[in-house]
Sequence to fold (168 residues):
Amino acid sequence: TGIGTGWYIDELTVVTVSVIGSAPPFSENVEGGFGDWSVVQGVWEIGTPTAGPGACYNDSAQCAGTVLDGNYPGVADSRLISAPIELQAVSGSDELRLRFWQWFSYQAVHDNGLIQISLWDGVGGSWQPWQDIGGPVTASSGAWTRMDVDLTAYAGERVRIGFYHTTN
Fold:
């Protein structure tokens, strides 16, 4: 078994900052399960945690986490992948932001989480390699905290967001 309870994610949205009254082009709270999300080499689960934070953010019924009922494995590389998202274009000083709530507890020095993005290559018809856009998430948050990641450089693109959990 691992030595930490891992990383928990809830209430993801992509918002345009500084546009009054704009609706989020993407919002996901995983209340209905995985849906169009996927997991590669899976320690990610969706449900209500009994370990780690002991509950989802704001007592919602379900969130995503790395092993909901105990510690993550000592050796793991697992990615939680969003459904494809069509990011809207922005203009002027507007910014596009990924916002979500996270709780984490990593105990070993080489264990961490990374927020990643993969862009759709319309010419080649495939997803490009993952790029780190946030993190590493290390140590312990102690409470649910809001994360805010700038996606403005990817405005107008078709993307997937990845939450990469790695341990050794």
Remarks:
- The longest strand covers residues 6-17.
